[in-house]
Design goal:
Largest sheet: none
Strand content: under 5%
Shape: globular
Number of strands: 0
Structural class: mainly alpha
Distance between the termini: 11 Å
Oligomer: single chain
Radius of gyration: 19 Å
Helix content: over 70%
Length: 306
Amino acid sequence: MNRNLKAHAALLLTTLIFGIHYSIAKNIMPVPFQPMQLLFLRSFGAVILFWVFQRFYIREKVERRDLWMLAICGFFGFAANQALFYKGLNLTTPVDASIIHVLNPVFVLVFASILIHEKVTVSKILGIVLGAGGALMLILYGRSVNMSTNSFAGNILVMANMFCYAIYIVLLKPMVAKYHSMTILKWVSFFGLLCILPFCVKGMTEFRPATVSVNGWLGVTYVVVLNTFVAYLLINFALQTVEASMVSYYTYLQPVIASVMSLSLGTEIITYPKIVAAILIFAGVYIVNRKSWRMSGRLKQVPEGD
């Protein structure tokens, strides 16, 4: 499998992990974990994992001038992004949050063109429009979406979460071309933990581990190991090959994966709108990335190192 296909496989697995994370995080908040308690456990656990693995497997130093950029990435990608998401998800619903996350590729496309001069093409815009339409159709069809006053604050926080995540993805792109993913995430997670630490002290002093059930700890394990350690590594790996806008585009596949899982469990049925929505999403993926796929086909004859 060539590197381009590996990058898309990594993004698909990341999308699956993120898609499941909505329900898991929602089910363990606000009981037994308050949002800032879950955020601290996620950040602290991620720092330990990234630092231990980087220490034993990747011996690489970072230039002092690059530490500033990694600190900024830590603020947007680990601190602000995750804090806003958990605070928002605690107030709103997974359906509302998934609808708002459809805006992520739009944010990334704008920031990528401004900050790292990623080229904006007609095909990218068309692909994003098709994908957004398909994702919204899949999410909204047959569902009652709660945009009431009670969840309005949560929706605003999730919107801000997407804003921060888009900046993180764009700023991280130049770094992954220079350093190993484990080295980057070691520092990004560390700076992120420093940023959120003052806001988590009160919540952690009130935390009672003995009250948490086995399912609660399993949920935290999923959040730390899969949704943070594994997923962020996969994103960094993909950014070495594909553009930042393509990484964000996989957000549109989350409703598809959720629907497939629901169908397999017998909780949903196949309908024509769902089929049309899936076609729109995959058509958008093809249009946005058809150039890199054509290039991938031309590179099949070139042997790849291990």
